[in-house]
Amino acid sequence: MVNIDDWYLSETGQYLLKELGEKISPILSTTFGYYSLQIGCTGSAAQLQESCRVKHLFTLDDRGCGAEIRATPSMLPIATDSVDLVILMHHLSNTDEPHAVLREAFRILIPEGKLIIIDFNPVSVWGLRHFLQGWLEYVPFNGHFYTAKRIDDWMRLLGFDQLGHHRIGYLPPIQKTSVTRHLSWLEKGTRKWLPLLGALNLLVYSKSISPLTPVRHRWVARKLLQGKVPRPSVGRGMKYDR
Asked: Rounded mean pLDDT of 41-47?
């Protein structure tokens, strides 16, 4: 069975990977640190991260598949606050535990560490083909295609801040090169007039830092300190039973 790594070796896959590399290169060239972790599409990691400035690059997969680390992405054997960059490439669309994977990514990232999510855009011609043929389990149109809005809602709840959103790839989802060569006009027109219909979403996030101590409004403090606390008094002429 063809997997997503094998599909990226096709001509259409190489087209998307090349454009993805051009978009992600400026992001990775300004990302520094000691450890980077890519989950999903581990066979494309070396080509994708050529411009990465992080010192040590690792790949992880739950089935091995040539990755350097074999582990379950929803239960990572990695210390908290220890990774500078995490890349999820087509993993959210192929897991039954997307929320658990995102929580683990948040846990292992250092404060202000970057998380990059790469996945197919359901609001595109590629998403339409997924809607029509996803039940066939045909790579790359199988799995779940999540909208960027839905992913962004999850990320904000976890504590991520969005740094960027890029859409990539405007070639129709046709594998026959003899056909796609004659559709360059369609690609250029879609890129110019319908930029929201890119085949891939490239989402960039930063792990936000929460303040350690709560900040109180000054007017609350002043209100609590105003005036003196009255003492209880007993009215004159009142008698008590003993």
From this structure: 87
Question: Would you say the C-alpha torsion 26, 29, 30, 34 has a positive or negative sign?
Answer: positive
Question: DSSP label at 1?
Answer: -
Distance spanning both ends of the chain, measured CA to CA? 93
Assess contact for 160 and 115: CB atoms under 8 A.
yes
Q: Residue 150's domain spans which residues?
A: 4-215
Within-domain flag for 227 = no
Name the pTM for this structure.
Answer: 0.82
Domain count, the chain: 1
Q: Where are the beta strands (DSSP E) in the chain?
A: 32-39, 53-61, 69-70, 83-89, 109-120, 160-168, 200-207
pLDDT, tens digit, 9 for 90 and up, residues 124-134:
988 988 888 77
Distance CA 17, CA 221 (A): 57
pLDDT of residue 73: 95
